[in-house]
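P.,

For your records, the input lines for the assembly:
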Amino acid sequence: MNGILPEGHVLQAESGEKITVGRMFGAGGQGEVYLAQTPGGERAVKWYYPAQATDLQRRILDSLIGLGWSDDRFLWPQSVVVDPQRLSSGFGYVMALRPDRFKDLPALFRRDPSVSAVNQRTLLIAALHTVEAYQALHARGIAYRDINWGNIFFDPATGEILVCDNDNAVFESEAAAIAGTMDFMAPELVRGHPGAAPGTQTDLHSLAVLLFMLFMNHHPFQGALALKIRCLDEAAQRKLYGTRPVFVFDPDDTTNRPVPGEQDTVLATWRTMPPVLRKLFVQTFTRGLTDPAERVRESQWRIALSSVLDSVLRCSTCDKINLGEPGGPAPECWKCARPLALPQRLELLTGVGSVRGRREVRLIRDGRIYGYHLVSDPLRHDFDDVVGVVTEHPNKRGVFGLTNRSRTAWSTRRPDGTSQPVPPGRTAALRQGITIEFGGGTEGVVHI
Amino acid sequence: MTDAPDSPHWALLHAAVKGSHKKYSQDSSTARLVLGGAGALLAVADGHGSRAHHRSDLGSRWAVEAFTACALALAEDVRRRGGDEARWPAVLAAARGLPQQIVHHWWTRMALHEANSPAGGAWTSGPPPGPDPIPYGSTLVGVLVVGRLLLCWQLGDGDVVLVDETGEPSLPLYDGPELGDEADSLCQAEAWRQMRVHWQRLPVDRHTGVLVSTDGLSKSFADHAGFVSFAAGLRDRARDTGLDRIRDHLPDWLTQAASYSGDDSTLVGAFPAARYALGPQGATEPQPAAEQRHMAGPRGTEGTST
Ligand SMILES: Nc1ncnc2c1ncn2[C@@H]1O[C@H](COP(=O)(O)OP(=O)(O)O)[C@@H](O)[C@H]1O
Ligand SMILES: [Zn+2]
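Structure tokens returned:
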């Protein structure tokens, strides 16, 4: 594919480093992305279309790069590049290459074989990572402004995510033009409401759209009303996303329900959602449309997603992962429609004194307890930090234990008061009423 | 063809032939100027044609009609936005949404037809089943060029080839020979999910032409490389002698292709008019028969010996 810059063309970074342009990866709405050779190794270069290489864009880039932020969840702009030979006026920026294991959402939407490793659990993890990534930005006072399906990539096997296209992010107080596409934009921005400015509040709407698409593989406003439109031109988009947005599952307004036969996926995926998540989507996409304060915040998403992750169930008939309702009854398997059995649960009490945290984890086969389970207010969900794994007894089928994968010894306490150490590598039997002391004041009680 | 502008930016190619042992063709196609010649719209659809898809001639016709209706609306939208590159992100969002509109358009036609004359005969008892799209199965490949913006959509087999003035043609949506033979189709559930979208900004200085064809054409070559060099050859001829000459010969080439693949073959194209429409004065007359072999290199000439 041919782009603005020919292969082999040499660009220059602000530091003076020479950057050699390689093949073109693709074209986006604002520019083209190329492979690039730099003294530091292979990178990607985004080169703006002339119309998009504005002074404002340049200033935004400078301040983002000035932040000097390095976080493995973001392909953050690293340095501005220009073309010393002036073959093309304008500029671009260097970022890290996206590793191949990260796939885009359209691959998920079309059930591409490259994302076949994905399941409900990895999607939950991807959602959780996505929420935490944007939360990290917002905590720094940065609004992303252009959250959409094109800038999130995910690893179908692990649920890790990568946020790209960070070049529209701005500090909250900075004056900035409206960025992004209408299908992800908060309605007040689509309407051009005076006083509406892109910021954290409007990002929360975009984030909810993105999460909905991640789980449901469908846009939350594209139901029957959208199908009546011949082309989603500007006027149609303005109406669908701005002046008259109707959530496809609005409990009080059924005009935009998905159309059976033509939009079956979203009907099926919505059924697999536990009520706790449905409620948040309904809230954001009904009251939150007109009242930004009603939009679900990252911290709320985070708690809900994390608790659903603790309630993941495995079907004993077909082995499929299902999302359970925290503290709720067992649903039917989305795949084989058999009623699911509820496995043992571990009631975790964290922290000390009066600020104890409490959560419950369903102990499914191969289920994991992570470091974040053992602290009251974890900074971030780190799924590499496994401290325990639910394992089946090698000789007794159906008998489960929790194997200590941490580096510190636990101990178990029976209801009769006797206790036993569980050093790393050993397994604590999961019996009704047993308490596992994880150290640091954290303990878990097993309930059948 | 729509309104003939004073000097259109694009010159079109359009040829279709029926497969050599077919009663009638299941291909449908269109090539037309849009926005008074400032843009072009190309589409081909290939009805599956087997017994299970015995109404696929209708399916392919509706596919092209659905695409045309939706893409024309999109072209209008681009014009209203003034073709400004700063507005491209919004245009691309509309382009990404187009598959759903196209498929819905097609589905509605199909459902209406099925309601009036069900392919499986009238149902006799029980509640009416939903419409059965299978008899109407078809592919769809469509292209819209407006100004510098090139947009392509593809569902199932078929080819989009971009040819610059010189050099190797590129196939932006080609990702290797089809592995299974379960190609995507408009008759599958939520077909819009499988429709791929590609866009790029056309470099002004390279006079890029676009060819869109059904797989009846590409399959008539011994291999993919043969097809690509056919496209390059066509471009060379267009550049050196003008598109009018190509138009004269195209039906013969396709007929020959169809005789090798046995399938319907359809080719539509759009070339920058200023560069390709008229051949240089006094160009020598090519020798059709020899040229044809050389250009097409279809199976059966060089092809079978390998
Ligand atoms: N850092 C990167 N490494 C590898 N490929 C990238 C990178 N950034 C973008 N791309 C690819 O380049 C193409 C254009 O990217 P982008 O401008 O972000 O387009 P879009 O508007 O589709 O998001 C896409 O195919 C994208 O996957
Ligand atoms: Zn099951």
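Two observations worth noting. Residues 1-5, 280-306 of chain B have pLDDT under 50 and may be disordered. The radius of gyration of chain B is 20 Å.

Regards
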